[in-house]
Amino acid sequence: MFGVKDDFPTPGWEERFPEPLKFLPVAFILAMIIGLYLIYTTFHLGPRFEEKTTRGSALLDAFVFHAVTAMLLYCYALCVFVHPGTIPDKEEDPSWDYDEAEGPQPIAADLLMNMQEMKRSGDRRHCKWCLKYKPDRCHHCRVCRICILKMDHHCPWIYNCVGFRNYKYFFLLLLYTSIDCLYIVANMLPTVRAGTQPTTPFMTMFWLMFGETLAGFLGVLVVLFFGFHIYLMSKAMTTIEFCEKSHSKGSFNASAYDRGFVGNLKAVLGENPWLWLLPVGSPPGRGVSFTMEESRLTQDMEAGRNLRRRAHETQTPNTAPKRRAHDRPNACGGTGSTGQSEEDSQSASGSEVADVGSSRDRRQVPNYGAADEGSPQVSASEK
Ligand SMILES: [Zn+2]
Ligand SMILES: [Zn+2]
């Protein structure tokens, strides 16, 4: 769809959008876009086209405005319809299949070099709902009811999760929305000022003021949110990882997946810098492994292996205090569209994403015990 190849298996339409009511926020966003579009073209561009003296500049404004708005709408459609990606199915790669009868398996030696996140016990992380082993950075979304690769957050405004395959589109959506809102505010300001004259019809004045205020309000919100995501991208972190790291009171500047500034941009926006600001191309890889030559963690791999061995030898799984999600302050609350209830309880508690592979991260993730495998019911009530 939209020129994006579904190279990998993704859930069908029925599975992805089972509740039509959840399209309401999407309809709300579209209504705002259409409303602002009509106000800008009817009360600002239209009158300037009629005046001979302003026709030239109006043409240029119309071109820029329509180009940015078209990109915004295209990115928005991609965000809604491109699936963020999920764990490979049996046919593609049976090694991710979790056998409930066997129970969680210790991480195999050949996987050790490619994986950073595992349980304190040294076992592979798994999802008890999807019955799959979880790749690094993968979390189960309770709204989408599926594991999401490199999950950032679930966004109700796009009725979709933001993850590995659609994060670039989400990032560009924030970029184009910021530009569009600020453009409307700056470009329409002289018309709004002129509209405050007593001779202006009331409805014209009302809609001009309304459009300017709405664009300004949205602009500030989206620019702040966009700034946060620029920061996250530069640090090679997802929103979930940011929340986990900020909660652990350590420095949340260091990500296990840091490849340096340009490398981090490439990991999100693609390898070709000429295409970074265009909604084309997908990030490199399948989204199940993020270990790179350059990543700082790989440098710690040797040390990490020793730590894992030690953790395995000294683990006492049932004596560690069990940590519950409600003990934890809601560090994710301020990211606009990130809802607290949308992450899986395992990732929210931070207990399962214990990164014993990194001496740096090992310090940052407190040991809450490896036995945090509560039933789905318990997990739901914990939120
Ligand atoms: Zn899952
Ligand atoms: Zn989701």
Short overview:
Helix content is 46%, strand content 4%. It is built from 13 helices and six strands. The two termini are 35 Å apart.
Topology (SSEs and partners):
Layout: H1 13-16, H2 24-50, H3 55-81, H4 109-112, E1 126-127, E2 132-133, E3 139-141, E4 146-148, E5 153-155, E6 160-162, H5 167-195, H6 202-234, H7 239-247, H8 261-269, H9 296-299, H10 301-314, H11 345-349, H12 359-364, H13 376-382
Antiparallel strand pairs: 1-2, 3-4, 5-6
Helix pairs in contact: 2-3, 2-6, 3-5, 5-6
Bound molecules: zinc ion (2 copies).
Fold and architecture overview:
This protein is mostly helical and 383 residues long. It folds into two domains: 13-83 and 165-234; 94-163 and 238-382, no CATH class. The protein is 46% helix and 4% strand. Helix 2 (24-50) packs antiparallel against helix 3 (55-81) and helix 3 runs antiparallel to helix 5. The longest helix has 33 residues, at 202-234. It is elongated and about 80 Å long. The structure holds zinc ion (ZN) (2 copies). One zinc ion (ZN) binds at residues 141, 143-144, 154, 161, 342.
